[in-house]
Amino acid sequence: MGQEFGFGFTDPLIAEVGGIKQNKLHFDVEAILKAYEKIKPLTRRLGVEPPTPRLAGFCYPHIASLGAEIVFAEDAEPKPFPMIKRPEEIDALTEPEDYLAAPLIQERLKICAQIKRRCPESPNFIGHPLEGPITTAVLLMGSDFLTLPYDNPERAHKLLKFCTRSAINYANKIAKYFGEPIQP
């Protein structure tokens, strides 16, 4: 009878076992494939299927498509930097003409395609399609967003509306690019 369970390997573990820095799992096809190959002895010892090679998990493609700066340190998670410095800047926010045109998005799409050429079962994945509107607002504005609903409710509402609309539009665009339905 038993209970079903899921099992996975974190990106930091794959990097460690693969003998590479974590940022290589975001940008280096050879390092990605090598690391996923090196995890196979551990999966055999544990009696589980080895993971399929893919780009490292990444929570920020939506804000990258909007122009947010994201730094990939050698051995740490990617770190986004707020792009809204003052509440007045919310009034000038516009959606990009092409959500996939940002340099980081283009680079990840290219790397995803290179991995798929070598490993066709690899998922169509450049990162998680979106965060919720409040998380996105904090990522775009930093912790200053947390007081904005009290200081300027109209602008807070405007930013949340922008975050929601742009997230939906980004998710639609990336799903269409890969020819896949939007995942709930």
Secondary-structure map with pairings?
Blueprint: H1 11-18, H2 24-27, H3 29-38, H4 40-46, H5 61-65, E1 69-71, E2 79-81, H6 103-118, H7 133-141, H8 148-151, H9 153-178
Antiparallel strand pairs: 1-2
Helix pairs in contact: 1-3, 7-9
The domain count comes to: 2
Approximately how much beta-strand content do the residues carry? under 5%
| Computed structural class | mainly alpha
Radius of gyration: 19 Å
Please report the number of helical segments. Answer: 9
Shape: elongated
Task: Give the helices and strands as they follow along the chain.
Answer: HHHHHEEHHHH
Q: What is the rounded distance between the termini?
A: 29 Å
Main pleated sheet: 2 strands, antiparallel
| SS elements, strand count | 2
Q: Roughly how much helix do the residues carry, as a percent range?
A: 40-55%
Low-confidence stretches: none
Protein name: Uroporphyrinogen decarboxylase (URO-D) domain-containing protein
InterPro entries: UROD/MetE-like_sf, Uroporphyrinogen_deCOase
Pfam families: URO-D
Domain Uroporphyrinogen decarboxylase (URO-D): 65-176
Short description:
Residues 65-176 form the Uroporphyrinogen decarboxylase (URO-D) domain. This protein is mainly alpha-helical and 184 residues long.
Question: How is this structure best described in words?
Answer:
It is a single chain. With 184 residues, the chain is mainly alpha-helical. It contains 9 helices and 2 strands. The chain has a two-stranded antiparallel ribbon with strand order 1-2. The two termini are 29 Å apart. The model has no long low-confidence stretch (mean pLDDT 95). This is Uroporphyrinogen decarboxylase (URO-D) domain-containing protein. Residues 65-176 form the Uroporphyrinogen decarboxylase (URO-D) domain. GO terms for molecular function: uroporphyrinogen decarboxylase activity.
